[in-house]
Amino acid sequence: MQSRKPYLFLIVILSLILSSCAGGGGAGGNGKTATFIFTQEFDTLNPLYTNMWFSAITNQIWNCWAWTFDDQNNPIPVLVKEMPSATNGGISPDGKVITLALRDDIVWSDGKKITSEDFKFTFDMTMDPKNAVATTFPYDKITSLETPDAKTVVMTFAEPYAPWVGTLWHGIIPAHILQPVYEKDGTLDNAEWNRKPTVGCGPFVFKEWESGSFTRFVTNTKYWLDKPKLGEIFIRFVPDDAAQIAALVNGEGDLGTFFANSDVPSLEQAGVQVYRVYSGYNEGVYFYLHPEKSHPALRDVRVRKAIVMAIDRFSFAKQVLLDLTKPAVTDWDNMPYVDPSLQPYPFDPEGAKKLLDEAGWIDSNSDGTRDKDGVELVLKYGTTTREVRKNIQAVAQEQLAAVGIKVDLYNYESDQYFAGYNEGGPAAHGDLDMFQYSATPQFPDPDVADWLCNNIPSDDNPAGSNWSALCDTELDALFQLQATQVDFAARQQTFFTITKYIYDQVYWFGLWQDPDLWGVNKRLTNVKISGATPFFNIAEWDLVK
Amino acid sequence: MTRYIIRRLLQAIPLLFLISIALFVLMQNVGDPLATMGGRTATRAADRERLTRQLGLDKPIYVQYLYWLIGNDWARIDLDGDGVAETQGTRRGALRGDFGTSLVNRGVPVTTVVWDRLPNTLLLMLTSELVIILGALVIGIYAALRQYSLLDNLVTALSFIGFSMPIFFIALAAIYIFSVYFKRWGLPSLPATGMFDPEYGKTPAQILVHMILPVASISIISLAAYSRYIRSTMLEVLGQDYIRTARSKGLPKREVIFIHALKNASLPIVTVVGLDIPLLLGGAIVTERIFAWPGMGRLFLDHLERGDTPVVMGIMMLIAFAVVIFQLITDITYAWLDPRIRYH
Predict the structure, then answer these.
(1) Is beta strand A378-384 parallel, antiparallel or unpaired with respect to A434-437?
(2) Is A423 touching B (CB cutoff 8 A)?
(3) Which of A83, A420, A521, B298 is the most buried (most CB within 10 A)?
(4) ipTM, two decimals
(5) How many CB pairs under 8 A join A and B?
(6) What is the number of structural domains in chain B?
(7) Are residues B279 and B171 in the same domain?
(8) What is the pLDDT of residues A438-457, one digit of tens each?
């Protein structure tokens, strides 16, 4: 056995050499290196190939969106001279044509001009079936994209497309780098640029990515807006939550995110500043409302209202979520589209009982659960296995039992829970009477896909995402109307009506507003964080000793 | 011996083949790779349908396995969903050294994904193994030579404590004590995460400092087990007649212990170490995760969670192959240590 030791030593030394050779130079640029702690590693950096949040938020560091959003979620032009509008001619009178006028001074980090060709190339590559991109949305809404000159992009839609501000041009790709790759390989799937995008258009430029370990971005000297004050952004991948907190507390990390509310006190005690940033996530419960297959009790608005009033969402926010948030009123809280007069339904178990009595749901057989016409008021309530969701589900079960509603709880792994109709997802299939989650794929634009009549999943439409199976024609007409209102004020008014309508009908009820938590060490200054594009002002961030 | 080695290697071929089938089937039930591709929301149904086709996940499992094994460069595939297979496949298959590309890190060859992490894992795990073996030898031999002494009892007690503590507890406790609280108390502290401090760059010195806590965490548990093992085998050997003979012949104590006793006491330990070494390639899943060490354990877990069959298959087949090879090496080492053993 002893004679093996020299070999082990040799392999250790060899590994040490190989590991050190893998890169990771010292502090870059002006010596000001900010270390971010990310709990997930990017899958790819090519914006076309990923929907991963941790990858998307780095776009404001090294890539560029046509416009970004400030900490109030207002759009700020980046690649365009100004936001297209009906007034400046950027949006046609019928709302079907949107024209982008590009800035004259925009350049890639290698000095090449950014032109309309890059937009066209990004569009073409997204829609090309040879590229296994993450999503073709929303480019599949565009019927044609023209580039009359190097600084103009004209997009034509089949219908007026209101959500364009929140969904279009989340990153572009450099045609002069990737066109030859596509021509050679017939696809961008294997392009080296996907993992090493050495040419970008953000305030920083990609330097290095070591798998599982870190990614570095250094100052982009060609950036056309504010020059960055930091010399380097070093992103370390730390998958363990507790280790992330330790790294923030001991100063190894300057910024971290995605931690639990319960970590906030220890971070604040260590001097880490915690930002609560609303990015449109409102945790809530959808009812299954299929006209024939749903539970008969849920078809009565009085029962739905009683369920909300029987659950103490105020105590959830205070006790389970440590008073760091509050109950959500609508699916779109913290967006400018919610009727400001709406307030959460009160916690009122007695009022709930009264409503259930009125609706005819009484405990006729004294088994502790209300019933009507021989049907027991027993509901299936499902969500994922996320701990906070399970905790709140258990409390809700107890509170609903107190008013005579029996609830059976179901929990699923995320991939199982969010599986579609064809994959046998429980919510998509109508197996649950109440199902809980939060989603906001188009923030800061209000996503409505889960509410549309034509989006109810079925054998003919397995792709449908309206898992409530709700089809209220009055509501649907309002949704159809807002989708075509490219005028913000008009659309906002329509949405006020929508939110009030859903609130009154209790088609959905909110449990809590779910902000993103960011921990920032005090040495990192000038930090502002946006819900839509967290690093929108990263060029202004600085480090103080 | 040569014929024995060749026979063992030939026997390994059907074994690896069966392992690959079993793993591939298991992976189909682990997770849905498309479910997590939607980011913070569920993957759009239309994208799911398109990606299923483009990534070849719409094929029956036996076809997917066949493509993994022998490639698909002999077949045409339908990428645009029009029902016509128009695009020539490009995969060469595992038998020709092409383990496919990662579904998570789209387009990156599995061999690259694995190779990027292998040196880090070898560095962490072999250092730990060295610490464990050397530490266990010192403690085990010392405890055996001074059976029931105070130190033996103390080592026994500490071994049981170390052995009964879960690794995540040891790792997190180490981080909070030596990294967080030491810093708070103004003492020299150790880094908690990663392989180096970006201020200084990835130098050997930085890597060594960053290895202290993960190596210590991994070593504590195995050190406890190994030292108990060495103690008991040494005690057994020290009681044998030939050791008594060696002592009575007047051989120096050091020679009796390290040449005569330890060599024979090592036989069962060689088996344990021989089985351990290939498994080291899998990394220490919990330790690598907590200390953010970019090794194979984390790679395995990250890609398993996202149903990345090609990468998980690549890692598992590497480990399976290593197990076969190291079993063979263990058997050969056995013969070297004990001349009575002959292989035919």
Answers:
(1) parallel
(2) yes
(3) B298
(4) 0.86
(5) 246
(6) 2
(7) yes
(8) 877 688 888 888 899 999 99
